[in-house]
Amino acid sequence: MQAKSDDATTSDWGGMLKGIAARDRITQAELALALHTSQSTISKITQGISRPRPNLRCRIEALAASKEVSTQWLEKVGEAARSSPKFFKIVDAALCLVNNNE
Predict the structure, then answer these.
(1) Which CATH number fits the domain that encloses residue 54?
(2) Are 63 and 92 in contact (CB under 8 A)?
(3) pLDDT attached to residue 15
(4) Three-state secondary structure readout of the chain
(5) Of 2 and 14, more confident
(6) pTM for the complete prediction?
(7) pLDDT score at 43
(8) Domain count within the chain
(9) Which residue has the higher pLDDT, 48 or 1?
(10) Is 3 within a domain?
């Protein structure tokens, strides 16, 4: 299910998101929350209309590599997003560093 950012096509990203949602039994809205993006963006990617930007690619790859998205984790991410927008900039940078060093 995992594709590297440089090699993934538009359909690869959509397939990866569909796979994560099916694996974790979550909706596009919940997937959007977990990835700190909009449901519209998730929909466009899963339909093959657009590709994710580099920072979203890092988050998708990290989520695909994880075991599953828990409800508690989604709630914590939502709380962090509301309290500190800088939180996601830090997480994005860290995920990109980790994914690029694999």
Answers:
(1) 1.10.260
(2) no
(3) 92
(4) CCCCCCCCCHHHHHHHHHHHHHHHCCCHHHHHHHHCCCHHHHHHHHCCCCCCCHHHHHHHHHHHHCCCCCHHHHHHHHHHHHHCHHHHHHHHHHHHHHHHCC
(5) 14
(6) 0.66
(7) 97
(8) 1
(9) 48
(10) no
